[in-house]
Amino acid sequence: DTLAAAMPSNENKAAEHGRDNAVSPPQGTAVDSPDDLVSASTVAEDFASDKVGDGMPELGYNPTNESLDRVRVDSNGQALTTNQGVRVADNQNSLKAGLRGPTLMEDFILREKITHFDHERIPERVVHARGSAAHGYFEAYEALDDLTVAAPFAAPGKRTPVFVRFSTVAGERGSTDTARDVRGFAVKFYTDEGNWDLVGNNIPVFFIQDAMKFPDLIHAVKPEPHHGMPQAASAHDTFWDFVSLMPESAHMLMWAMSDRAIPRSYRMMQGFGVHTFRLINARGEAHFVKFHWTPKAGTHSLVWDEAVKISGADSDFHRRDLWEAIEAGNYPEWELSLQVFTEEQAEQWSFDILDATKLVPEELVPLRPVGRMVLTRNPDNFFAETEQVAFCTAHIIPGIDFTNDPLLAGRIHSYVDTQITRLGGPNFHEIPINAPVTQIHNNQRDGLHRQAIPRGRVSYEPNSLGGGCPFQAGASGFVSYPKAIQGEALRGKPERFAEHYNQARLFWNSQSEAEQNHIVGAYRFELTRVQTPAVRQRVLALLARVDATLAQRVADGLGMDVPAPLPDFAPGSHIGAGVQGSVQPPEVTQSPALSLMARPGDGALNGRRVALLVHQGVDGAAVRAVHTAVLQAGGVPRLIGHRLGDVQPASGDPMQVEVTLETAPGALWDAVVLPDESADRPNLSISGQAVSFVQDLYRHCKPILVLGHSSALLAATGAPGSAEEGGGDPGLFFMDAGGKGSVDADVMSTFITAVGQHRPFERETDPPLV
Ligand code: HDD
């Protein structure tokens, strides 16, 4: 089918997409030689950075693949073997004493197979169990000599391979992708100075200030221990009980109840290193730094009703979206920016930069773009790569160092520790996906699953028998920043950690109207699920301290009165006044950068899914024209009908329905194109399935293009504006195509622009009209 053949595909994997230019791997060997696989010229043109010109390694090719090639297995044309390499004659029947007799203990083939199967599972991650990952590279725009000696920033255009895993936090390994949750954004840089893991989230702050509280937080949000419910959800009593007793979570809760917690795609969310880190230059000078990843496709989210429906229709929604974008050669991209500041600056601020519940407003320190990251290759094997990858905040390289953030301190311990259980021993760094591209040399020895075979008799240092090797690298190795330390050992918090509400209020004040409405809706939803009235009451008291209107609106939704605000223990507040110093007023009270709307992205369709509804007698020429236009704009057009197979348009060749209304309901699409259908010749408009399909797109504020002046189908949804020319709804488009085969280029391009801009929220009401 010509429409299907027009769909884009990943140049690196042509064979898997049945393309003519496919290079099939030689049978029974690893896939190697990137030069053969990549048609470098096309990829190079598309992906060469406009800022740096030609990059270093072959474009579109990930150098880590080289180190992984030694373990890639391709069984094409090969006979089945046991784990000892013995060819297996019969894989159907166990060895028996007579056909109806007992199975023999001697059947080593059966026993090996069953034993291995019995041990296939490993423990899932204690948090962030559900995730999806991809390979790619980071490319520096410029050398950052003034700031750091860190290898990825050594030269303009330098490329460092990366493996990136996105995740939800609370759900189990098989839980739904579109749960309301923080998203993990973990990047492993395979640098030529060893591995650097930047283990961040899509939200720049955290719930708690001290790692001491992390197990409590996670116990509160995970399914309740007596009955194991709910899965992948914070909308239950124990979570809200805990956070309402921990006012330091006020700021993060605002983010978690915002649309940030239901991203449209992993490709459309920001990433943050969260903590303040240090950059160290060749002179040993340190600067404070916060890391920001900004998606080229912009920051875009789902709406809650949609997220819930997607959960049912496709619980792999984000995993599939990432996979399909990369398979289609539509490589996701982020820009890395730094917020760099000095200790002297930080001393002046009203908040403490060691407090992970606070961000540094961009008004105080603007973002400095330093490079870009592109994801170009899906893993070959989910378990070997995505499941076994081990990110550790302790993995840093020369040029980067920690600060005394007490949350970070706990993390530096936790990640290595947890891998030892999860991956079964201290040698998880040898699992191919975790191995650095630099050779490891040290005297650590043995342990479960050891791969390396160290030569010689020396496994200690100093030694003379091994010529003193491996030797200490001195100044060319990792040198910890000599930060000054003073004071007594004590348990407590610094003064500025006591202020919890200024940035929660800053976030609220910086949201667009639609985002504020969604925040109110999220609190209402979550607290309605909470069964204990006193917990609801305490959350309202917390919100009352953040913003009176917010608290009132949430209280209205719960049928409650707003209680007195929670006491504020910050020094200088009404209770703490005169007790111990005082807290300064916030420097910034509104920060437009905190709204999702601040980063609309490049406006391209970026793999957004556009449904073209078709039926017998549809205007084929118009459908084909829209299909082409969507494809050219980088979207994914699909023909949808009641049943798979051919439909005969009014004129021209038959068209193939690729997806059905039943298997891919409305919530899964970013926009819809409705066929011209008059009331006197009804077709889809008399199908409840088609009507609710379109109703969902309408309710979720997605662009709708009507082929013709009006549509019986749209009218059947009861949508306001369904009459001719839309009645001013900015997301409704009517295109006169009426069988003439020509399409209105202006309407087409306004529709495409609207899809790229994501959602016209003007249509939204609470409760929804449709
Ligand atoms: Fe964590 C996993 C991010 C606080 C302990 N965390 C994990 C992952 C991400 C984060 C993205 C998944 C990595 C992957 O894809 O494999 N965590 C964060 C961020 C935090 C944070 C941004 C706050 C700023 N985490 C945090 C604390 C602790 C942990 C305070 C413990 C003291 N996190 C873990 C862990 C996990 C983990 C238990 C579970 C699985 C793993 O490490 O590999 O060690």
TrEMBL record:
It holds the Pfam family Catalase-rel. One of its GO terms (molecular function) is catalase activity. The keyword Magnesium does not apply. It is an enzyme of class 1 (oxidoreductase). InterPro entries: Catalase, Catalase_AS, Catalase_clade2, Catalase_clade2_helical, Catalase_core, Catalase_immune_responsive, Catalase_large_C, Catalase_sf. Residues 81-469 form the Catalase core domain. Its cofactor is heme. Gene3D superfamilies: 1.20.1370.20, 3.40.50.880, Catalase core domain (2.40.180.10). Its EC number is 1.11.1.6. SMART domains: Catalase (SM01060). Keywords: Heme, Hydrogen peroxide, Iron, Metal-binding, Oxidoreductase, Peroxidase. PANTHER family: CATALASE, CATALASE-B. Decomposes hydrogen peroxide into water and oxygen; serves to protect cells from the toxic effects of hydrogen peroxide. This is catalase. The lineage of its organism: Bacteria, Pseudomonadati, Pseudomonadota, Betaproteobacteria, Burkholderiales.
